[in-house]
Amino acid sequence: MAKTGLVQDIRFERHETGYGHPERPERLRAIAEALNARGLTGICVRIEATPIDIDLVRRNHDDEYLERLRSWCVSGRLQGDMPDTGICEQSFDIARLAAGGVVNAVDAVMRGDIDNAFCAVRPPGHHAERNRSMGFCLFNNIAIAARRLLEDHGLSRVLILDWDVHHGNGTQHSFDEDPRVLYVSLHGHPGILYPGTGYAHERGRGPGEGFTINVPILPPGRDDVWRAAFDDPILPAVERFAPQFVLISAGFDAHRLDPLGPLELETKSYGWMTDALVAVARRHCAGRLVSVLEGGYHLQTLADCVCLHVERLLAA
After folding, report:
1. CA nearest 132: which of 72, 209, 199, 214?
2. Measured between alpha carbons, how far is 20 from 261 in angstroms, rounded to an integer?
3. Which domains, and CATH codes, for the chain?
4. pLDDT in tens, 1-13
5. Which of 4, 38, 200, 301 is 20 to 30 Å apart from 78, CA to CA?
């Protein structure tokens, strides 16, 4: 059994997004209750969430944006740069906690304290651009973690695989020109789904050309389509890249029951995808892997998928 870290903190629930918003505190409550009920919390290693040093956030986000977001939260404004991105007075501080928990998990894996980790954090991050919030996201947690690996731990090849049903525009744009990060995203086709980016021809720019792989999927997008995409082009490209660390943007909204996605994955699909990336990490980087929660809005399905995901990490 692997030593799997778990980032959980009740303070993440203090990020209030407004009545009826799908990215709500109940998501984390459902996950926590399910992990406890199945005995998984107790066999994971608790990783503390601490407020991230704002200088680490500045590596991925503009000062002007950070000051704008901070002032909006303090003033009691109810939305960020986009109407879909709800905020409250505490949101800036909770975003620091979320990003800090992810960085703490990455650091713990690099020290060898744990083998891998799952970070049940909110607000999510993969839509957050350098200079604006969007798509429920404030800080790009996984991009900040990748920069931590590159700039502080001295790595030169980091894989980010994003299986959220929505394309991670913010993450892609963070590393468009950086050949040190291979960004791979499977998502609902941008012609019909938010945020309208992630076409197959988007492959990076300049020195980063070829280090972005987008696999847009049309409905119904069932398990066989995702398996075929893993077979080609994803796993061959990942093998050539030979990552030194694996990061997963783990959204669970491509499930057939999710209210925000048009695709039809089953719960079991997240098991084999986890296994595939665990195997990549084992072959190339001594199992080093950190997974970060993104989307997933059907509470029972989210809880079931996360439990399966954590079980597979523990079995690594």
Report:
1. 72
2. 17
3. 4-314 (3.40.800.20)
4. 999 999 999 999 9
5. 301
Indicate if the alpha-carbon torsion angle 36, 268, 235, 218 is positive or negative.
Answer: negative
CA distance 181 to 109: 18
Phi, psi of 160 (to 5 degrees): -115, 115
**What is each CA distance from 14 to 24, 92, 285, in whole angstroms?**
10, 11, 36
Q: Which residue has the tokens 């040093």?
A: 53
* 255-301: pLDDT as tens digits: 999 999 999 999 999 999 999 999 999 999 999 999 999 999 999 99
pTM for the model = 0.98
Q: Which of 126, 127, 189, 255 is catalytic?
A: 127
Q: What are the DSSP calls for 215-261, one per residue?
A: EEE-TT--HHHHHHHIIIIIHHHHHHH--SEEEEEE--TTBTT-TT-
Q: Is 127 a catalytic residue?
A: yes
Q: In this structure, what are the phi and psi dihedrals at residue 116, rounded to the nearest 5 degrees?
A: -155, 180
Instruction: For tokens 């990942």, name the residue.
Output: 238
